[in-house]
Amino acid sequence: MLNFKTLLATLLVTTSVQAVPLSFSTTHLPITLDALLEHEHVNEVIECPQNLKEALCLHSLQYYSIRSDAMLELNEEGDVAKIILEVPNSAFAFNQLHLNMRRDRWSVVRVNAEADVYDVEQELGSKSVVQVDKELVAFINKTSSIFERRFDFKLSGTHETYTASLVTTRESLVLSINNQPID
Q1: Three-class SS of the chain
Q2: What is the dihedral of CA 30, 12, 162, 98, to 10 degrees?
Q3: For 126-148, what is each residue's pLDDT tens digit?
Q4: Is the peptide bond before 88 cis (omega within 30 degrees of 0)?
Q5: Which residues lie across from 57 on neighbouring strands?
Q6: What phi and psi, each to the nearest 5 degrees, are found at residue 39?
Q7: CA distances from 14 to 60, 62, 143 (A)
Q8: 123, 149, 162 from 156: Cα distances, Å
Q9: pTM over cut 0.90
């Protein structure tokens, strides 16, 4: 079953020039902080500089070709509730993040751009997948990358539903992946 851990299995923590992949079995969802810290190659987990008590940071995490520091938000039980990656905004990084999410079977379900919204799930109720895909690409291309845009994703092909969002601003791209399924 493809789920959130498949995404995490593609994240790499680099401790030197070579990157060593994190790997988790498909039976550990949600991923606990203890499980993450027990991995032999995760040795650069520190408190975040923002002094957030419910968060830890990872250095040099790599999601396919995108390298970033990451913040882990923790819930009351100490489980990893959310993983947040932030990278400088560029056309390359934007396209790579979208390609990586699609590679991991995440689907765009909604895009908010300026005052406009394109709701993929709603449009699929009355249009073909091909038509919706064309309209979505046109919607994304017509909105300026200098304004904030939000892309909401859900993980496809699972029994549980996981969500993620990519928020783009003029300066940065912030990918937030929820480690807890929604009801």
Answers
A1: CCCHHHHHHCEEEECCCCEEECCCCCCCCCCEHHHHHHCCCCCCEEECCCCCCCEEEEEEEEECCEEEEEEEEECCCCEEEEEEEEEECCHHHHHHHHHHHHHCCEEEEEEEECCEEEEHHHHHCCCCHHHHHHHHHHHHHHCCCCCCEEEEEEECCCCCECEEEEEECCCEEEEEEECCCEC
A2: 180
A3: 999 999 999 999 998 887 767 89
A4: no
A5: 46, 71
A6: -65, 130
A7: 6, 7, 35
A8: 17, 22, 9
A9: no
Q: What does the pLDDT look like over 62-118, one tens digit per residue? A: 777 787 878 888 888 777 888 888 999 998 999 999 888 888 888 899 999 888 999
Amino acid at 36: L
Sole residue written with tokens 């200098």:
146
Rounded Cα distance between 146 and 154, Å, is 25
One-letter amino acid for residue 159 of the chain: H
